[in-house]
Amino acid sequence: MLNENNLVSKSKTIIDLKNLDLNLQELKVLDVYLSKINPKNIDTAKVRFTKKEYCDLISVNSNWLKTKRLSKYLQHLFNNSVVEWLDDEQENFKLHHLFEEAEYDKTTQEIILECGRSDYVRSMFFDINTCGYIKYALKNTLYLKSTYSIKLYLYFLQNRFRKKWKIALEELKENILEVSDIETYSQYKFLNAYILKPSIKEINEKTNLEIKYFSIKKGNRIHTLEFTCHFKDTNELINGEFKEKDIPSISSNLTWDEIENDMEYGSLEYVIAEIQYTFKSVNKKEELNKAELGIIKELYELYGGRMMVVASREASTYEKYSLYYMKELMKTWVMKGYSAEDVENGKR
């Protein structure tokens, strides 16, 4: 049975994939797939759907859908590949299937779906702590009726810490909505009427977010948009999905040797211990409070533990040690396209 309250853990690498030819229904199939796997266990890569579940997602009556037609729908999903760039200049690349295998058993009326088996694709689904991820209840995207609504919802969720921010109109069109090459949307009035207004209205009505926006002119043209993002239930922790019990309790009395030798580098426990140790050393703060621990957990999910470790150490070097400064560092690195490995190797 499809459970709308299941959690989707979606890596930044999946969110940032460009030029995928996934339609609205297939985006929902992807989210349901993510809600059924355990991102910490690669053995869960094969996911079972009932035929009715799958048909409901693609808006087709399962009683009328013949097996040959079902195979055509699955073929469209399988035609999507992702690009792995093999060098910084993006001159060499390798293509990988996002989904590798599907099997249908007419007797049981079950579809078994498996994501791509290459290390590159598997890391998108099962190494999410390294690349960062966001987490949300499936119901937040399951009932949206536009691909643009889903893209904007994910964009707003990624920027949830900022509460209020600005983005250049052209950047929004090119990198978030992927409509910069559609002539109709070269004029803001059409972009606003056909995408922004209806999508944000739908997000406000059907998700856990409340979004407001207004346009900013440069000369006679709309140049920038300013967004304000709030969560509807203020009792929830930031994304409303994880609970306080998910945050490990780490002693503030650990020595540096104990952190280095007894904890896994880049794990949430390691990150909390390092930040707590540094706060104690630099800011003379004995213990992190619940709000700070919640922010660390969210940053960990968004950017990954390895990048957080680098940000923590760089922040302490420049004597600007705060969670806000760490967040700004990581946001800048991600905007430049740097991975955790890049910043560990000194890219800035």
From TrEMBL:
It holds the Pfam family Rep3_C. Residues 8-155 form the Initiator Rep protein WH1 domain. GO terms for molecular function: DNA-directed DNA polymerase activity. GO terms for biological process: DNA replication initiation. It comes from the Bacteria. Coiled coil: none annotated. InterPro entries: Initiator_Rep_WH1, WH-like_DNA-bd_sf, WH_DNA-bd_sf. Belongs to the initiator RepB protein family. This is Replication initiation protein. It comes from [Eubacterium] hominis.
